[in-house]
Amino acid sequence: xxxxxxxxxxxxxxxxxxxxxxxxxxxxxxxxxxxxxxxxxxxxxxxxxxxxxxxxxxxxxxxxxxxxxxxxxxxxxxxxxxxxxxxxxxxxxxxxxxxxxxxxxxxxxxxxxxxxxxxxxxxxxxxxxxxxxxxxxxxxxxxxxxxxxxxxxxxxxxxxxxxxxxxxxxxxxxxxxxxxxxxxxxxxxxxxxxxx
Length: 196
Hints:
Elements: E1 13-19, E2 24-33, E3 36-46, H1 53-71, E4 75-79, H2 87-106, E5 111-114, H3 116-124, H4 131-141, H5 153-170, H6 181-187
Parallel strand pairs: 1-4, 4-5
Antiparallel strand pairs: 1-2, 2-3
C-alpha cells in the first residue's frame, strides 16, 4: 500500500481530476489553501503496454487506488466521455471511466462528472478551446513552470477537470425565492396570518 505524500496537511481540500482513456489516463491533483488552488501533481497512467483490455482496466483500478492512498483526495472530478461514432471505442472508454470511479469510491472519495465542453468553458471561457489552449491557461492560472508540465495533454486535461470542479463547487449558492404563494406560506409559517 502506498504511503501518503508529505505536506498534504497544509491543504484544506484536495481535488483529484481524471481524464479517462484506454491508452493513457490523465490525472491531476489540486490542493486548496485559503480559497486558492495549487497544483500538487499531474501525470498519466500508461496503458498501451497492456494488450488485454481487461489488464488495462485492472491497471486503472490499482493506480487510482494508489493515487488516492498517496494524496488522500477529498473529491474526484472526472471528464464524462463524449459521444463518438465508434461504438466499441465508446464502450471501452466508458469501462475505463467506470473502473476509475469504482476505484475512487472504494476509497470513499465522492465523484462529480463534467462534460469536456463545460471543463473547457470553465478554464478558458471557450467551450471549443483546444487541449493546448486549456493547458496554457492552466499553466498561467496555477503558475506552473513550463518544465513541470507533462508532454501528454491527458494530464493537463485531468488537472483542468479538477480546477473546473474547484470553480463550480466554490460558487456561492443563490437562494431561490418561493415558486407560489402556497410555497411562500410553507416557508414562512410565522409571518403569515390565516384569514388575511
